[in-house]
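Researcher: Before we compare anything, I want clean individual predictions. No alignment, no superposition, just each chain on its own. First chain goes here; please echo the sequence and then give the structure tokens.
Model: Echoing the first chain and its structure:
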Amino acid sequence: MRSKIQKAAFEPMFSRRFLYTLIIPLVMEQFLMISIGTADTVMIASAGEISVSAISLVDAITILVVGLFSAFATGGAVVSSQYLGNKDIASANQAAKQLILLSVTIGIIFMALCLPFRREIIKFIFGSIEEQVLVKGSTYFIYILLSLPFLAIYNAIAALFRSMGNSKISLLVSLVMNVVNIAGNAYFIFVLNLGVVGAGLGTLLSRIIGSALILVLIANPTNQISVRSYRHLRFRWSMIKRILHIGVPNGIEGSVFQLGKLLVQGFIAAFGTTTIAANAISNSLASFLNIPGIAIGLASITVIGQAVGARETEQAVYYGKKLLGVSYIAFIVLSTPLFFFAPYLVQIFNLSAEATNLAANVIRSASIFSCLFWSTAFIIPNFLRAAGDAKYTMIISMISMWTIRVGMSYLLAVVLNWGIYGVWFGMYFDWIVRSAFFIQRFASGKWKTKRVI
């Protein structure tokens, strides 16, 4: 009854068709990315658990940098969405150019800084690991670092298309990238027997092609946001400041989050190659649960951002509740079969009996806790960011990560010797704490007073 009253109180900004056409391609894109990532893991598993462990450790590090790209892309998407909601197309286009320039610059800087010290970075983060894992990991790291500027371009422009409500483009480009990636991996790993080098080459090639394609697509003059020329492109600090208003807190939040995850990953690394491999497989399969939630979180930047830009905060509340409800339904639909079929799915990866058993148990626990707490822990903060309330999400996330997730993981995994189970249950406690604070913030309405444009 209450939702009917809310709907009658205003003319909805977004039709049901608009929401479907925004969210469904995002779900398909996330499914594609995660399924191809899982296929990558299966392919590299043919080279042994050492290769799986090496790639999983490097991927855990690069997620930190990729998180920064996503943070700035989110900042640009929020600014662009609010300008579009305010019908200021010229400013939305200016924000788009600044986002692309900023993202590429950051990608090149990280590539240049990390390449000479990649081996030292792995050792510093993960401490004492097997020499073979370290050697293969530092080799794979080369290709991932070379791909960063291209990935930065893709992330930035994909976020801009989503801010326009056009998620089909990012799906199309992601499809091309992932087909290239899996085909490249198949050739480099199985035909040329290049192992981790083959996995790295496949990733690099896919990101080069994806960035080139999406640059062409954003130049289409029929887009609301269209970037057709990069001549005389320079930083415009007034617009950069608006992007950074969201991007910096989001970037700090994401970086601290990933650093905490890396530290926790170090706890897992101490338990040996079998546990590392089991954790990698658990992450791959459990990631499928998050697909609708991630897609809805991305869509909320567009929906909430445009509503706030149009000064329609009550519509932002209405659509926020609607999106959260859809996410919970999706989690229930996905988590139920995954719980029951986890032992059979893990066997696909052809790991040792011990690693297989560990992974199956972890995935079953993730099915329960993801269904209960993931949406409120990670989708609601996107509502707040889209409204400009990024500092609050940063503060809560940082405190929860370091006091709850890292602290509880250390207590359970190391002190109480729960191993991999302690790390995952430490993560679940973190989700519960985040959920409590973000629900309270959204319900209080304090985010309605924030302004980006």
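Researcher: Okay. Second chain, same rules.
Model: Second chain and its structure:
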Amino acid sequence: MKLLKTAVCFAAVSAVMVYGCQKLYKDGEYSDIAGADVAAETVPPQETFTEVITEPVSDKEVSLTAGKSVTFTFLGDCLLASNEGDTRPDSFKAYAEKKPASYFFEKALPVYKDSDFVVANNEFVLTDQKLSKTAKTGTAFWFRSPSYCADILKSGGIDIVSIANNHTMDYGTKGYNDTAGALDSAGIMWGDIDHPVYVEKEGVKFGILCTNMFGANYEPIITPKIEELKETSDIQILFFHGGTEKEHIPEEWLTELCHKYADMGVDLIVGSHPHVLRSMENYNGVDIIYSLGNFCYGGSRLPENRTVILTETFNFDENGSYISQEESFTPFYVYGGEHNNWQPTPVTDPVEISKTLAFMYGAKDSPIDL
């Protein structure tokens, strides 16, 4: 049976607080949990925005008794490398050679250090070999770093990465395999279209499918993989890489494909690749975040300087039956200062926080100032 839920979202003032919607099933409907993630005194009325969303929830089994929660945190594109041939003294490569591994994520880690699983897009090659670049046409970039850069991800608290993107083949199959090996050595789980990631917490098995999705022609590749994921996990997450770069509005084909997978039963859909934020959508009770933008991004000295950390909380009863889930966003800058210092920094200005959140929730009268 399809039920309705109502979400009320607030912006609050804090550098490391998570913002978003809390939804609870009770007495036949979904409603906001008062004070669940933002203390009342931290919400100044002049900076508060409210959006009411009415939407059907998924067909997952619903129970009335609250019990256990599992949290997943997602970061945007992480490109821990410089373009081939970049020898500038302030490049990412130069920073990686002189800074401790903890430097890059040290301002972000407090936000998600208590999350059960932290997921990011690993958009570069990890290798210690002198490999040949893959041939490309037009304006092209190649990104690789020594294998020790996997320690940056590890020290940054990242548990799982996707290597399904358009740069992990920059140095061919050997570079791809070296990347997987370096991640294995660092104790970081990785996934691609042929290797879904499975994790278990509180007796619930989560399946994460990482995939490229650059057009509607990917549908016959992805759909059977999702069917397999449904057979082998309790909760399914799709982490895709696709969409037009630097465009803030998702393409029609991409929206249709995400809707299809939501209708198939996927519980959460998160996207990367455009290098800019895209507003989220809740479709039939499924959160679809079309792009988280960049996060720790070595590909540009001046990338679009706005991103968010997404945390999705899944709630279950004592028997592991699904009750509800809620998304929350923490606004971040990709860098602080005049140009990229390769260290994402929390947004602290309440007006900027509100603008970012309003954009993520699609408030048309509150455009984000990018």
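Researcher: What stands out in the second chain?
Model: The radius of gyration is 20 Å. Additionally, The CA atoms of residues 22 and 35 lie 9 Å apart.
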